[in-house]
Amino acid sequence: MNIDKVLEEYSGVSIAIVGDNKNYLKSYVENLVYKITNNDMQRYYIIDQENIKIDDIRQIQDFLSFSVESGKKIVVLFDAEKMLPEAENSILKTLEEPPKYALIILVTTSWNSLYPTIRSRLQKFVLNFPKNKIKELKDFIQKKLYLEFPEEFEKIKNKDFVEEKITEQLGVNTYYTFYIKMKEALEDSKALNMLVMELLEVKNFKILKAIAKVALWICEEYNLNYTIAREFSKIASSKVSNYNYELTYYYILLSLKDAIKKNKV
């Protein structure tokens, strides 16, 4: 049975949806949940955050404590492997005996990171990224954008991009803008300084992490050494926001520029 039918027809059970691409899983499951519940916020509860705590589980239990007039309730925990130990212990009984009117979904790219006691209470379904579509994309940046925004395939395939002013909204156009401006900055010092100044106007942690991610893409594109990629990866995956933004932006761009120059020698 495919995932669509599972979410449409199942209730009174707890399931796990396991895949190999976090962004694809999130986009697919989220859109399907909205469709099934007709965007009725009384019928779905979604947790999507860095760490899932015991208070989050208590909120789920409160949400499931009463039924709705029609249809079922759906609970989704994205990145379920990020449940803290006390949260995992707290959710065990709920997973084992969910209300008949409810479907509980744990979404993860790391099935084996869940406690065995959690896994034993779940029906497992696999939803892997449809990599065959990548063959339709020719450019390096198209492939990277598709992996980041799988729901935007047609836009990416048609190169329907618009360079945008940098804001806190991070969409496919924003990532494309980062890529283009960073490539320009690597060729021209004036463009580099202008990009840093534009980024500082927003000074947002999510944007800093996105810039580090695009820097990783460029490392791959130019086949740069592992050491510099590892440093960018630390920034892209960081949970701590106390960076000196100006220095970090300059570090990323100047390090890229220097590494590419050395790579050409």
TrEMBL record:
The family database entries (InterPro entries) matched by this protein are listed as: DNA_Rep/Repair_Clamp_Loader, P-loop_NTPase, Tm0771-like_C
* Ranges where the Tm0771-like C-terminal domain occurs: 187-258
One matching Pfam family, short form?
Answer: DNA_pol3_delta2
User: Superkingdom, according to UniProt?
Assistant: Bacteria
Q: What is this protein called?
A: DNA polymerase III subunit gamma/tau
Source organism (scientific name): Thermosipho affectus
Classification from the root reads: Bacteria, Thermotogati, Thermotogota, Thermotogae, Thermotogales
